[in-house]
């Protein structure tokens, strides 16, 4: 595939130039001459206030309809032309007669800050649009987002403009088109395919909006904006938001998880952004009430709305909004309900007692529902904290056992001068070893072998092999002076042998009691359903259902969506070769299509790696290593010693592959590692895997800390998955010393019913 270069279209630079030119001119005029915001009419050679515009100086100083305008810039009105009085632009001071009292207005510090505020909002909107565009200039969706941001910035630009003719034309045109741009963005962002009927409707809407814009512009040039045009634009805006909410709700069940998250974030952004504008300005304006919040402040919500769209387009990575959306809905409904109660109290003229009763009842209901939603979210957080606690307890237990073994070995070395000592023990699933002295290098080798007393005596240079229980051994090297053990030394070793046996037996007993306790919590209906029991069939059925869902989603994307994109790319290639349309546009389409193909392939591999179905675990890991090296500069060494006669059930193989992939991803993204060693072997019927990197490492004790956000959530998830497979997991790490993760999964008959 050829590399398709994307050039910045001229319309982007032209749009930025026009906006900057308009902004410099309008703000330059507005800094000198304030926006007065009055509508005047002439009676008997006198000028009276016919209406007050929101956000102007007239509203600020208390001018009311019916007041008389008597002077401009200190001059009587007879010295001014008729057109100058009507426009009231390029006027610095003005005097009105209000109930027999002269009221004078002029430019002050507040006007200066208003202009700075507007400039700040405009800069943020244009900055967001430009940043998003230059990050992905080849995307058609991004260009639409850029246009929408420019339109929003133009709306803010006109709020305090003194050049009323230009400002009103810009405001009217932008207000008419912004609902269309929002709906178009919504359809392109949420729906993968738009029906031809909807496309035809949008084409017709373009024509109608163009005619309406032309009519409104002509009306403004003749006189002031009629109130019915303003009402239509507000209703149009409200209908667009309603259409987004209704369409999203009706099509919810047809969306995949990613699209659902897109929709939830978009709806959340719309709710938080436009709720103040709708309830505090638009609705009161439509029903004939005085607005509660001036439009310039109500439109601050344009910034979070634009930021929400940018987050979806640029990040392409969602938090799980379903955890938080219920509370956002509750807050939104509460604010809307308060406004509704306020309107009812005014319309029906409630007494204060009735108003207070409804207010307290509504607030109480809000608090009760909010508590329910918080409990729902907290249950997820509690589950995560419990999983972290379980993992930290298991790691602390393993570390404590190893520390005790190290202490006993050091005690033996202080009493008996031997060349080296090895202790081999098992916790029922995972085999452990600790070696000191000349046998230090044997530790890793002993972990990967089936150790028996005969093998240990024949294969290694041990002077004494003391069996502890069934699978545990205390192995000693020769004495440094090449003499035999004395009677006192043998008696001491017998005592140490019994201590080690007692220590390992108690550790195994404690581990078994924990498993029985967790199993009983499930069996007797405890609320903590996440307990791990290796022999519980429901755990495996749960994993099987999750895996089945992943496979279905993966094959759906691979066989349908990807094929459609490939077919579309071929058509675009033919169009490009035929030179029927603009080559640059075709190149951009091809670039987007090819990117989509690659992203979908990666998504398919992430949901369910198809190579695991077609090959064994070794070839799948080799493919994983190659693909990881293509994405990151990382040296990966594979040590694969899995017995060829060991047959892995599909569920076990797939989950082990996914766990290893997650650990490699952690090494690339979080550990800043340069080398990773991946070891896979089996001890009898137990599959063992170790992933070791030379990265930054972390403090393992952090796993037991509460309220640590989402840190190490991947490790907690892996531990939960290994537990459900009946295995165990161990982590060795410290800051600056890399991370070593060791997992063990039994490959026994209990997995056979899951395959």
From TrEMBL:
Q: What is its EC number?
A: 2.7.13.3
**Record-linked SUPFAM superfamilies:** ATPase domain of HSP90 chaperone/DNA topoisomerase II/histidine kinase (SSF55874), PDZ domain-like (SSF50156)
Q: Kindly provide the name given to this protein in its UniProt entry.
A: histidine kinase
Give the source species: Paenibacillus alvei (Bacillus alvei)
The keyword Nucleotide-binding belongs to this UniProt entry's keyword annotation: yes
Q: Which SMART domains match?
A: HATPase_c, PDZ
Keywords associated with the record = ATP-binding, Kinase, Membrane, Nucleotide-binding, Transferase, Transmembrane, Transmembrane helix, Two-component regulatory system
Report a single Gene Ontology molecular function.
protein histidine kinase activity
InterPro entries in the cross-refs: HATPase_C_sf, HATPase_dom, His_kinase_dom, PDZ, PDZ_sf, Sensor_HK_TwoCompSys
Question: Where is each PDZ domain found?
Answer: 36-88
